Amino acid sequence: GQQLNQSPQSMFIQEGEDVSMNCTSSSIFNTWLWYKQDPGEGPVLLIALYKAGELTSNGRLTAQFGITRKDSFLNISASIPSDVGIYFCALFKAAGNKLTFGGGTRVLVKP
Amino acid sequence: GAVVSQHPSWVICKSGTSVKIECRSLDFQATTMFWYRQFPKQSLMLMATSNEGSKATYEQGVEKDKFLINHASLTLSTLTVTSAHPEDSSFYICSASPDRGLLRGEKLFFGSGTQLSVL
After folding, report:
1. Cα-based angle A11, B113, A24 (whole degrees, multiple of 5)
2. How close A9 comes to chain B (CA, Å)?
3. Across the interface, do B110 and A42 touch by the CB < 8 Å criterion?
4. How confident is the prediction along chain B (119 residues), in pLDDT tens digits per residue?
């Protein structure tokens, strides 16, 4: 089945740092979505990518759809405490419009 | 943006009882709804897809007789966990879209989830 690998699994951030996370798939897809989930809440869409090579920003967030259409990354610049949460990449499987999520990257604040 | 309301936000029940979770689209007609389950520190796993007026399509390994899904109207889908057991304790999340065809991320809206704890 579809393999969607997200890394890192977790990371610690210090306020002001830039952070990066990425996803790779075993197959080619036409859509990459990035979500953030806060504790006890549903995921919220951050950025949607639909074209290979596409680079899109949403405030301090930037995401790119890889040229090979098998990967994507999400960058957060100048992180702030409210960036803490779980970030998921996701893909639509063409058949049935099923949204498949990556394993998530848990962003935590450095003690 | 569009709003999907999920109720209750948390529920505790005794083993063997049934629990119903509601998912409502408040400002659009939800042609397609999805139900996900999320165990602690894990990702969201799709359980089933439902189109209004049709039977739900369940993912492999999800028991349709245990997780009853009803999507009888364009604004409401319900998930009933029948004869719940402690291993069914999880965070259940619905999502809804006004579209039936090829979906876009901007047209898929998530509820805030329901934490089910089975004692």
Report:
1. 40
2. 10
3. yes
4. 679 999 999 999 999 999 999 999 999 999 889 999 999 999 999 999 988 878 899 999 999 999 999 988 999 999 999 999 999 999 999 999 988 776 788 889 999 999 999 99
